[in-house]
Write a structure and sequence with these properties.
This protein is α+β, with helices and mostly antiparallel strands and 987 residues long. It contains 28 helices and 34 strands.
Amino acid sequence: MATRPPASLPKLSRRARVLLIVAAAILLVLLLGARMLNTYVDWLWFGEVDARGVFSTILVTRVALFFLTGALVGGLLGLSLWLAYRARPVFVPVSGADDPLARYRSLIVARTKWFGIGIPVVTGLIAGASGQGNWQVVQKWMNGAQFGWTDPVFNLDAGFYTFDLPFYGWVLGWLFVALVVSFLGALATHYVFGGIRLAGRGGQISGPARVHLLVLIGAFVVFKAIEYFLDRYELLLSDRNDLFTGAAYTDLNAVMPAKLILLCISVLCAIAFFVGAFLRNIQLPGIALVLLLLSGLILGVAWPAVLEQFSVRPNANEKEAASIENNMEATKYAFNLGEETVDVREDYTGNSNASPEEVRADQGTIPNIRLLDPNVLSPTFTQRVGRENFYGFPEKLDIDRYEVDGKEQAYIVAAKEINTSGLAENQRTWVNRHLVYTHGNGFVAAPANTIDRALEDANSDGGYPLARTSDTQDPDGAGIQVDEPRIYFGELSTDYAIVGGTPGEAPGEYDTATDRSYLYEGQGGVPIDNMLNRLVFAAQYGERNILFSDQISDGAKIMYNRDPRERVEKVAPWLTVDGDPYPAVIDGRIKWIVDGYTTLNNFPYSQRTSLGDATQDSLTGVPRQQDNQINYIRNSVKATVDAFDGTVDMYAMNDNDPVLKTWMDTFPGMVKPSSEISDELRRHFRYPEDIFKVQRELLTRYHVNNAQEFYSTQTFWNVPQDPTEEGGTNPNSNVANQPPYYLYAQAPGQEEPHFQLTSALTPLARQYLAAWMTVSSHPDDYGKMTVLKLPTSGGRQLEGPVQVQNAFQSNPKFTQDRTLLGNQSVDIIYGNLLTLPVAGGFLYVEPVYIQQRNNQSYPQLARVLVSFDGRIGVASTLNEALDEVFGEGTGEAATGPAQDSPDSGDSGQEQQPPPEDGQQPPEDGQQPPQDGQSGNAELDQAITDIQAALEKLRQAQQSGDFNAQGEALQELDDAARRYEQAENSGG
């Protein structure tokens, strides 16, 4: 046995040390520079929205967790390395001249500080970087509120499972990590310095190494015993049974007792490890380890599997009854589907023998039938009211209700936003994209139950929305007064904008065709008129023009994170935000209303569901929710984002939600109490789609009354697939679900029309109608659900959406129309199929649009399909379709002439007189062209072409030639466009 003197390493020259320091500094800048830059940019942004408290709370929590987890893992590793190094043998055997361990020992001895401090520091940094991401777990534990709902097994408040248990599991997980890393560090150190030798039979281990390693293993087993104790509570979130979430019979009667037994065995094993460490007896810890492993396999795996296979499965309906009851109770509470929220009515038989008189008497639903599909008409809005090419609308428009001229009804609404992607090639300079075309202008609204039949004198087969715009030139253009119509923050605003500045130095922002020198004077944006911020944002966006442009002057601001949904997500990262913000005019200002949800995935016994899957349907144009598992949700927050200055205000919709209370305590002052919601703002709240889709998905199963019925699944429902999608009428196709629809209607049990969100439901694996559900958005009963549960036995089954769509498609009249309309130059677009409870039965209404196949065309309403009790109406107007179903005069008596005519005053505008035969209808308040009026050759030619196209259209309709109608419509569109161009050019 001999020792080898440590070999000294070559010393670095001064130049080499300087180069190494410079390289390390550059690496540090590369690693941390971008993060520090982002942090500063976020700090500025949170100051803009007056939410620095959120920023500082999150930052302080993350920094604290970084150091705590880093100190735990790195410190315990450093202590373990120090103890192992101190306990190294005095004489270290060398196996030969080329012993590799001798080389490592020499290297470590020569650089003990580098290894003894550097390795723990690096490990701590890695652990800290990982641990700081769990700031929400820690804050929920620190501020967790009580639910007042106790679980049926341990009788503990649900707050223990949702707020406390995750924190305990998180701490325990880091203790395991720290012990494992320390054990591996100690094992490596003892091996390198000879405390552990593998040579000889069975190897050798020194006394200090044995004590050190066995104590670490014993501590690990102690914490394992604590984990077994906490695992008992985790069983209330078990997924053992595919039918429900929660502790099943096997969990309660096999796994839970096994956890207690394993806890006791773990404590005994830990004592055995500690005793073996100090009595120099390795056999006792070895026996304890084998006992722990065998007991884990037998008690934790084998026994539950035997009980499940031979006792539970043969009698599952009885054995799991209690657990199913617990799951049903918890799920209804967690998803707000209890009796106080959901009114299941079984007295609605779906009677289909309604007389025309009964239909005429329904003045709450039929006059408000929505003919406009917001998912179809974005191109129509763009072409008819978008005007300049740099304005645009989201792919999906929105629905809200307004009172105009003393009458409340549903409107298709949209904000006319800036869309820089629509700029022409010669407009796409950096100055234009970021300093000139900075904002949209106008709030657009169209009555949802009315179409523009200005061409009706020519027997037009099509119609357009009566869309009007309230903008800076006409603040009351849509019948809705807008005092500040400029839109700097919106769904299409994905890029930054630099606004404001000094007159004469700033280039001026495009506001209207006659005002191109407007400069922003609002509160939104971050100052960018100092060199530091210009340098920061130039680096942030990789754009040198920000740094060197002379057109960024004193008072200039930069706007970023302009999407309303993104702004709310950043201010409240603990919220799950609905995918569809919508604009509303509140006190004369355009504000985006964004719904926020508080969600959990660890509510005891509540059914876990995928948020992404439950909210997935055929609807396009809205962001999809992430595929997160949740088992608790509340629409607890309504947020508004001012379209002009970006101000974010959040209001509590459910002051009793414990999750919201927890976050309000974490970030005091950020969420205002519900008492501060103004009446006007509350009138524009609508029940959000995403939470309704989740509740609808759960209600297809949790409408049942007892465990036996739940287990059989026989009376479960389905959300129907969207029959208007391609392949939607094929029950075997993989078509997405039919989305719910906003309606202004009077459902059974309501005394007057309400704005509500509705959906049809079908039986499991069947297509007929099983139920119809609605949730109110009216301020007096917001969130109250009504489910019309149809009889399942006796009587005749009512047709569901897919069956009705099949009937439409096979109807001889519509088959002929579809064949003639859908020629080579025209596309047919099926609008939303609405299911409406009317006169004791269900009325189905579906608008059908046509669109020319060219880049400048847009959808127009061509047909309205109506079905009631198997009787089908196909016509150009709703009134005519109702007449075909219920008899002559029913349509006008039920809906009135306003349903399909612009002369009703529903738009809030002073109506133009009906067009003379052969004239183009007035649009957006323009006077119709007349021969000899203009004195402009291009204008007069366009007028002549419009008249010729109208005459051609009239003749084609009289002869029934649909191909000629399509050509005439195309010619009419072209002529109208040339007329607008000629008039705008000064004609």
